[in-house]
Amino acid sequence: MDTCAVGVSTLMLVLACPAFARAAPGGQAIPLTINSGRPLSVALDERVTVKRVGQPITGTLIEAVYAYDRVVVPAGTKVLGHVAQLDGPSKLTRIHALLNGDLTPARHVVLQFDTLMLDTREVSIRTIVTGEIARLRRTAAANPASNTSPPEPGGHVARAREEVKNQARDAIDATKQKAHDALSALTQPGKMERLKDAAIQRLPYHPQFLSKGVVFQAELVVPVDFGTATGSDVASDGTRPAPASLLNARLATTLDSSKTRRGTPIEAIVTEPVFSADHRLIFPEGTTLKGEVTFARPARRFHRNGQLRFLFETVQVPHPGDAQAEAPLLASLESVQASADDHVVIDEEGGATLSSPKTRFIAPALAVLALRANVDHHHRFDNDGDANDVAGATVQSGSVGTRGLGGFFGLGVLGIGLSQISRPVGVALSLVGAGRTVYSNVLGKGREVRFPADTSIQLQLAPGPTRQP
Length: 469
What we know:
Shape: globular
CATH topology of the domain at 1-24 and 240-356 and 446-469: Lipocalin
Distance between the termini: 26 Å
Mean pLDDT: 79
Number of helices: 8
Largest sheet: 7 strands, antiparallel
Strand content: 25-35%
Structural class: alpha+beta
Low-confidence stretches: 1-23, 145-152, 463-469
Number of strands: 28
């Protein structure tokens, strides 16, 4: 199979266009309503030290919110909220914190966002925060290495086809880079700020805070009405999306490589309308995508991470006053929003896994070296004939520094101080630290690929032949 066929087969979207043309006709009044259950992605503007219930917070909407065919809440909108509740930690959470040398009573912070600050007015909303992600970033699939492949036979026609593909790929790359830069500006605090936060969190007792840039998923409890408007003209039968279009959606199904099995049905909701080249509507916001998991492998020992792959196969376009009709579709994952700490990797065919940085071996190596230094003994023979001759005296080679290093891996910053109490305590903490780091970074199970419901994803659209159901 040639390069062109491979690229099209992995990213092709096959559309049954007659079904799409049945959306609300142009000129018809459509309600501009954000339905309940729609998540809003809000990034905190500043670090918030948690003090009390009712404490105000301010965030920024990182993704525009659409209703049918247009933006009703633009990205960058300020969102106001407050600390609604402070719950005590569970026993398991408390034990885990103590084992890491953290004596801070880490309360569970419940937030509510209740106001959208639009240009002309304030809009009241009711939300429930369902999740949070630190250091959110968009990870895109690797581009096929088509530039290194031999040219296709066929003369001018083949070269023209390849040129169109390259132009489409360049446009897609530019769009993805622009989205990545915009997202990073809102969700990625500076290096010095991250180092400061990490240092504070390592202290045995520290103020509890929410980091700048952490993204909260605030799910609407009640619909938000923005009135009505005249609907866009609908694309005619046979219209195909532009080659460089990207379809934005959110998962409606939670995916987990340890629990989701091959063949599991999945759904996603289109969050941004898709238009034709002449700006006629093909997919309105709220269009439903259906598919299934095609491959799932749970994490295994020796730090081998889980893997997931899924495809969308049908689409349902909402029709006012009419039953939804399904049409064939084939689309694979192009990009996903996830924490930078997860190190998500997406291959050319849309498969997702997690990479394991080589730096994970640094901690086990240092912990083992510290343990060896703290338990090591050697004999010193001083037989030079003076009054200080010592035959066979045992010398401990563990120093204050090696004890502190071993204690740090065993019990965090608190362990640095405890390791200086006595040599046995230092050795014990070093042993705990070496065992913990070696198991978690080398011998233990890897990490699972988890995409919770409402995860933002992208699918690449490409023109293809119409296929009847």
